[in-house]
Specification:
Blueprint: E1 3-9, H1 12-24, E2 30-35, H2 43-57, E3 61-65, H3 71-80, E4 86-90, H4 94-102, H5 110-123
Parallel strand pairs: 1-2, 1-3, 3-4
């Protein structure tokens, strides 16, 4: 099985993990690693040890990041260069996680999951509009007169 790490600025990783768990349940070998200002100095070591721990238990690691060029992405990219079986994807969204993790089986490869993440991430972004029916004013009969109505 492929292990997964979700990382991003602030509470992004924990919040998205909560949403994922609400919809799809808890995920094995899926670990959020938030990048928070208070722990910024220890973030690279935390991310590195999480990757290492997952690699001890899985066949590879797919790291989901929030933002291209941000610290979580940059650190993940630098650390991934130390391994043959660690990939990084950025622009993570909930549809991407749901689709990718639903296909994560013992036989699924890292390359398969990476491709699914890229395709489902793009497919999860769309623009929709709500077409409301026109409001029809009630017609008043010619016989209706309010002149005699009242107190």
């Amino acid at each position: 099985m492929i292990g997964c790490i979700l990382t991003g600025h602030g509470t992004f990783a924990n919040g998205l993990t909560d949403a994922l768990s609400m919809i799809a349940g808890d995920q094995d070998y899926f670990i959020p690693v938030p990048f928070i200002e208070a722990g910024a100095a220890s973030y690279p070591e935390t991310l590195a040890s999480t990757i290492s721990d997952l690699l001890d238990q899985t066949d590879g690691v797919l790291i989901f990041c929030d933002l291209l060029g941000g610290t979580p992405f940059n650190q993940a990219m630098m650390l991934s260069q130390n391994y043959n079986n660690v990939e990084v994807v950025t622009g993570t969204n909930l549809p991407m996680l749901l689709e990718t993790l639903s296909l994560r089986l013992a036989s699924t490869t890292l390359t398969d999951l990476l491709q699914t993440a890229l395709e489902s991430g793009v497919a999860g972004v769309s623009h929709k509009t709500l077409e409301l029916p026109a409001v029809v004013e009630p017609a008043l009969d010619d016989d209706s007169s309010f002149e005699n109505d009242g107190i």
